[in-house]
Design goal:
This protein is α+β, with helices and mostly antiparallel strands. It has a single domain, classed as Deoxyribonuclease I, Chain A (4-Layer Sandwich), CATH 3.60.10. Helices cover 23% and strands 30% of the residues. The relative contact order is 0.16. The mean pLDDT is 95.
């Protein structure tokens, strides 16, 4: 199973949802989680979901024989977070997340912790992935304490960042950033993550796509997760 997560930078590029899905579709993903994206022309039950009250929002797409079954925990969920049972050639539980901070609203760590509070039972399932642009990193001064606390909390739920497992790098010391602040590399941060349950970690790999092609499309690079033994 291949899962791609990408922040499409709608606020700058204003591309249609379908154009973003087509770009990622060239990489043949089974699942796409697209943050900061336009609303689809039409949502398709089981295959195209969009989360949000206004644009930009969070899009989830299932392809290649896979389908999305919304979880009942989505009722009353924090904004821009949604859980699905993914069914098809293999199966897993997916939580897509893209926390956005309003000027006078909760901080990113407060938004993420409220999301973990709400979906705690869902995340304890044996085959689970939490994925998206989480807007958190120890490279951000205001998050030097909150980010490690978030990682520790996810660890207690049985979830670990696949990038850090495979690279052996510590949080905040990533050599493959996923975000260029200001779009011009004024600051490089790793803020897009895939946290996997132990069962899924065993035969999974991750890559961060980069290069001028992706830089022209967004201020984020996609992350690509391949789960080789997904059932």
């Amino acid at each position: 199973m291949r899962i791609i997560a990408w922040n499409a930078n709608f606020n700058r590029h204003r591309r249609p949802f379908e154009a973003m899905a087509e770009i990622l579709g060239a990489l043949d993903p089974d699942l796409m989680v697209i943050s900061e994206t336009a609303r689809p022309i039409r949502e398709e039950p089981e295959h195209i979901a969009w989360v949000g009250e206004k644009e930009p929002g969070l899009g989830i797409v299932a392809r290649n024989g896979y389908s999305l079954l919304p979880h009942e925990a989505n009722i009353g969920a924090p904004p821009l977070s949604a859980a699905y049972r993914v069914q098809g050639p293999s199966s897993l539980d997916l939580l897509a997340v893209w926390p956005i901070r309003d000027r006078d609203g909760p901080s990113y760590d407060q938004l993420l912790n409220s999301t973990l509070d709400h979906f705690a039972e869902f995340l304890k399932a044996e085959r689970t992935i939490l994925i998206g642009d989480l807007n958190t990193s120890t490279r951000v001064d205001a998050q030097k304490k909150s980010h490690p606390n978030l990682v520790a909390r996810l660890d207690c739920l049985g979830l670990s960042s696949l990038y850090h497992l495979r690279s052996g790098e510590r949080h905040g010391e990533e050599t493959a950033p996923t975000y260029r602040h200001g779009g011009l590399g004024k600051g490089l941060f790793h803020i897009d993550y895939a946290f996997l349950s132990q069962t899924l970690q065993k035969a999974a790999k991750i890559q961060v796509l980069s290069g001028h092609e992706w830089e022209a499309r967004s201020d984020h690079y996609p992350i690509v997760v391949d789960i080789l033994d997904a059932r």
